[in-house]
Design brief:
Elements (H helix, E strand, L loop, with lengths): L1 H14 L7 E2 L3 E4 L2 E8 L8 H22 L5 E2 L1 H8 L8 H7 L2 E6 L6 E7 L8 E7 L5
Antiparallel strand pairs: 1-2, 2-3, 3-7, 4-5, 5-6, 6-7
Helix pairs in contact: 1-2, 3-4
C-alpha cells in the first residue's frame, strides 16, 4: 500500500538527523532543520493531470487520517498568510518560505514527543506533470 510506504518515509525523516547544508537528498530538498520530501508525483499523461491530482489528493487524505489518529486532528493550514507576509518583504524561514512557493494548503501536526513538525500537501502549481505529494519534516516552528 502506498500510504504505508509514505508514512514510513515520514517516520524515518522524523527520526533522522537533518543535513548541515542546503541541497538535495535522497528524498528531495533538505537543509539545516528540515526535509521536503517528494512522496509521489503526477504522471502528466492524463488530460490536465486531473486523474493524477485526484490520486495524490486521495493519498494526502489517507496520510492525514492516519496522522490525525496518531497525533490528533488538526485544521488545514493555508499558506496565504505566508504569501502576504512575503509580499510585504518579510523573510520567512526555511522550509516555510519554500513551502509557500509549493503549496496552497497543507495538513500540519507537531509530532508527539518531538520538536518536529510534519506537513503534508499536494503541490499543484505549474504544469500538470509537476503535481507532487510532498511531506515536510522540520524542527522550525511554523511562522
Amino acid at each position: 500500500m502506498d500510504i504505508a510506504r509514505y508514512l514510513d518515509t515520514i517516520d524515518r525523516l522524523c527520526s533522522r538527523p537533518f543535513p548541515a547544508q542546503h541541497g538535495w537528498s535522497d528524498v528531495g530538498r533538505a537543509g539545516p532543520g528540515y526535509w521536503i520530501a517528494e512522496l509521489a508525483g503526477g504522471d502528466g499523461d492524463e488530460p490536465c493531470g486531473t486523474r493524477a491530482a485526484e490520486q495524490l489528493e486521495a493519498y494526502r487524505e489517507g496520510i492525514a487520517q492516519r496522522l490525525d489518529e496518531r497525533w490528533g486532528a488538526q485544521p488545514g493550514w493555508s499558506t496565504l498568510t505566508l504569501q502576504v507576509r512575503m509580499g510585504r518583504g518579510e523573510e520567512i524561514p526555511e522550509p516555510w518560505g519554500s513551502v509557500e512557493e509549493l503549496l496552497d494548503e497543507m495538513s500540519l501536526w507537531q509530532a508527539s514527543g518531538s520538536d518536529r513538525w510534519v506537513a503534508v500537501g499536494v503541490a499543484a502549481r505549474g504544469e500538470p506533470d509537476e503535481i507532487r505529494l510532498l511531506a515536510v519534516v522540520t524542527e522550525v516552528d511554523p511562522p
